[in-house]
Structures are given as C-alpha cells and as structure tokens.
Amino acid sequence: MSKYLRFLIPLAIFIALVAFLAAGLKLDPREVPSPLIGKPAPDFALTRLDQPALTIRRADLLGQVWMLNVWASWCTACREEHPVLLDFARRRLVPVYGLNYKDQRAAGLRWLANSGDPYESSLFDPDGRVGIDWGVYGVPETFVIDRAGVVRYKHIGPLTPEVLRDRIEPLLRQLHG
Amino acid sequence: MAKFLLPLLLGLLAACAHANEAAPAAADPALEARMTRITSELRCLVCQNQTIADSQSGLASDLRQEVRELLQRGQNEQQIVDYMTARYGDFVLYRPPLKATTVLLWFGPAALLLGGVFTLILVLRRRSKLADDQFEADPEPDASPADEAR
Question: Is the Cβ pair B45, A32 closer than 8 Å?
Fold first, then answer.
C-alpha cells in the first residue's frame, strides 16, 4: 500500500499542478469580469453623434432589449469587428446603439460614412465619462441590456461570429421570449 | 511635401498638448497627494501591471482626474474605492478583499508552506529512527581517491 502511495501522491500532485496550469493558460487576463452584469445599466444622457441637438437617455431605451457597442474612429480593433457588426445589424435581431468613446464628432461621423453605420444611433461621449460609468477599459466592448434596463452580458474585444452565435443570440432569444 | 508635413506635425503637437492632464499638481499639493495615495492602490485596466497613479494610459489619466473631482466633492477614500469597484470589480484593487472566492488567494501560499514544513518534519522524523547502516557512510575527510580504490 505505502509502496503505491509513494508514487501515487507525487503523481496526483503533478496532475493537479498540470490542471491548474492548463486552466491558467486558457484564462485571458485582459477579460476582467464586469461587476455590472445583473445590475441596472448606468444612467446616461448623451447627444446623438449625428444630431448634437438630440439627447438620448437611459430611460428612453427602457422596455426593449438593446445592445450597446463601444467604438471609436481611432480604435483599430473596431475595424476588425466592423464587418461582423454590420452583418449582425442587418439581421435586425436587436437595436444596436453605439457609444462613440473619446472621439471627435467629425472623425466619428467620417468613419461611419466611410465604413458603414450598423447603429440605430450613436451616443457621443467625448470625455469618456459615460464610458467610465460603464466600466469601459478597452474598445470595442459590447453590452446586452434587457427590457428592465439590466445589463445581462458584456463582451470585451472585437465581436466574432462565434460569440454572436454562441453567446449573444441565445441570450437575445431568451430575453425576447 | 513640407506643405503637408507642417500641419501634420502641428496637429500632432496639438494632440499631445491636448493629452496632458488638466489641474496641474501645483494647484493643490494636498489634493494631489491624496489622489496619488488612492490611485497607487488601484490597478490600471489598460496596462494591468501598473497602478492608476503610474500609468500613462488615457483611461488612467481620466480616472486620476475623476478621483481628484471626487475628492473635491468631499468623498472619502472608501467611497472612491467603492466607486471604482462598482465599475471595474475587485480586479482594480491591489489588495483584494477577503471573500469566499479569494480564500485560496489569501491563504493558499501559507497552506502550501505549512504543508511543506509538515512533510519536512515527517521525513526528518522517519529518518532519525532509521539505523545507522541504512545510510551511506560518510567519506573519510582525508581519504584520497587512491585509498578508496584499494
């Protein structure tokens, strides 16, 4: 018995170590879990990127499921995401609002004119204040908000067809159902 | 060429100037010191191995400004830390709170050390009970390799 233990204990420790290291390899340290999930979406009142005279507030969007996509004309990862987002928006599953984060109005509008506008409308957040309230730390980021105004999901980094298909679309079906 | 380059350089210069933080340190040294103390305990989310106090990232500079304003509004340190964790989670804290999910983090190293000490004691005890002939004999201090071969 003790003869076996001599080998089994180190083996067990080794396997546990490998399991921890393997799990550690898969974790992305850049993906910080958002404390906002399950909490009411932070309040905001921002002007529309294309119409500075019009203000959109959190309360205006209550009663519908919607998505918020944080973007900026200076953000290179957004370029990678853009075709995916355009494709998704074309399917009209959910209104996608943009949060134009720490950008300039002219630059943002030019970017949308050149590469296509997937957004219902974009909210203009030049100083990033609303971004801070939403815990934004890397652009692009995407949030799903339910009818009651509660944040249900957050994706950090560019959206991929896989994330949309496997995570966001099932959630939207559940929220709409 | 120069016709294009000059406005470009000027534009860059303007962008750099714009990137500088408002409210210079000299404005209120006491406030600045409090702000630095608080932000040195907070992790910057953009460059994760730096504190918000140290980081040059745009977000860190915005957050420093935010902390200044919160302090000016009379918020205390705990309220500011709560403000940060409400937005970015416990991840921003360089001293994570003790919770069910962080028990391993807090006590794991101590548990490993205790386990090591315990194992060492066990091994040493067992060894001290062994008879002398179970051990390899110590070599004679002055024995030359030639003597050993004989």
Answer: yes
pLDDT at res. A72: 96
In this structure, what are the phi and psi dihedrals at residue B93, rounded to the nearest 5 degrees?
A: -85, 130
Question: Among partner residues A29, A102, A135, which is closest to B87 by beta-carbon distance?
Answer: A135
Across the interface, whether the CB atoms of B89 and A132 are under 8 A apart is answered: no
pLDDT of residue B90: 87
State what percent of residues in chain A have pLDDT above 70. Answer: 99
**Which residues of chain A fall below pLDDT 70?**
1
CB atoms closer than 10 angstroms to residue B114: 11
- The residues near B42 (Cβ < 8 Å, ≥ 6 apart) are B51, B52, B53, B63, B81, B84, B92, B93, B94
pLDDT tens per residue, range B73-131? 999 999 999 999 999 988 889 888 888 888 888 899 999 999 999 999 999 999 888 87
pTM here?
0.75
Specify the 3-state DSSP secondary structure of B116: helix
Q: What is the DSSP letter of A58?
A: G
Say which of B46, B62, B89 has its CB closest to residue A128: B62
Share of chain B above pLDDT 90, in %: 41
User: Do A97 and A123 contact (CB within 8 A), yes or no?
Assistant: yes
Which of B39, B69, B87 would best serve as a mutation to test chain A binding (most A beta carbons within 10 A)?
B87
Angstrom distances, CA of residue A112 to CA of A73, A78, A87, A123, B31: 8, 11, 15, 13, 41
- Chain centroid to CA A160: how far? 11
Instruction: Output the pLDDT for position B7.
Output: 53
Output the six-digit token pair for B74: 């009379």
* CA dist list (Å): B150 to A32, A48, A112, B44: 69, 96, 91, 70
